[in-house]
UniProtKB/TrEMBL annotation:
Keyword terms: 4Fe-4S, DNA damage, DNA repair, Hydrolase, Iron, Iron-sulfur, Metal-binding
SUPFAM superfamilies assigned: Uracil-DNA glycosylase-like
Enzyme class, broadest EC rank: hydrolase
Organism annotation: Hydrogenivirga caldilitoris
EC numbers for this chain: 3.2.2.27
Family membership noted in the UniProt record: Belongs to the uracil-DNA glycosylase (UDG) superfamily. Type 4 (UDGa) family.
CDD domains named among the record's database cross-references: UDG-F4_TTUDGA_SPO1dp_like
Keyword DNA repair: yes
Protein name per Swiss-Prot or TrEMBL: Type-4 uracil-DNA glycosylase
Gene Ontology molecular function: any one: metal ion binding
Catalytic activity: Hydrolyzes single-stranded DNA or mismatched double-stranded DNA and polynucleotides, releasing free uracil
Domain spans labelled Uracil-DNA glycosylase-like: 68-218
Classification lineage: Bacteria, Pseudomonadati, Aquificota, Aquificia, Aquificales
Record GO biological process: DNA repair
Amino acid sequence: MGAKETAKALEVIGFDEIYLTKRLTDGNKRIPGDRTIQDKRGLLLEHFNSFKDCTKCELHKSRTQVVFGDGNPYSPVVFVGEAPGEDEDRQGRPFVGRAGKYLNTKIEEVLGLRREEVYITNVCKCRPPGNRKPTPLEISACFPYLKKELDIIEPKVICCLGATAGEGILGKKLSITKLRGQTMPYPYNTKVLVFLTYHPAYILRNPRADGEFTEDMRKLKELIGL
Ligand code: URA
């Protein structure tokens, strides 16, 4: 990749600045054999560049652009949503609409972190028309991209936002109302835990669930050791 292309990719995925607080990097830096920050950024860039023109499913026909994950590749938690909406499709970044604003507030108020200090992505990288749910076929076409992204970051916890994200990651049907607030093993890496909670858009439609979401974020905070 040339310097110009790298700069463009950095801009697209929001890595123009690395936001790392000491407490988030110290632990990571001490892991023997762990990759350097530059390595993780480089690996993600390379990965994103490899599928920016993906045509594996129908969604490529209506998308404006592929929406990659963004944030801190050394975050102990990766938030995984469903798929980009209209705002995300236009801006090329995940969770920049109303649901994203709600999520940012909780990350700040409950986890005590800035959005840029965590990593946020989606199971499906392209916007489904009319914001419909992505189909199982679309999710499975996109899964290798998500899996590789998670392999590179290897967070302590993958926080699935809503049933679609949970089903995409775990590969099975689940009820989020029954399983929210709970952890499960991540099928591809025993060092990583999967944590389930509501999708922020659900809370916007059902404000009474805000307390439960907050409670889940407190549990998440404990799980990631903050
Ligand atoms: N924005 C995203 O990026 N993902 C969602 O699941 C919802 C809104």
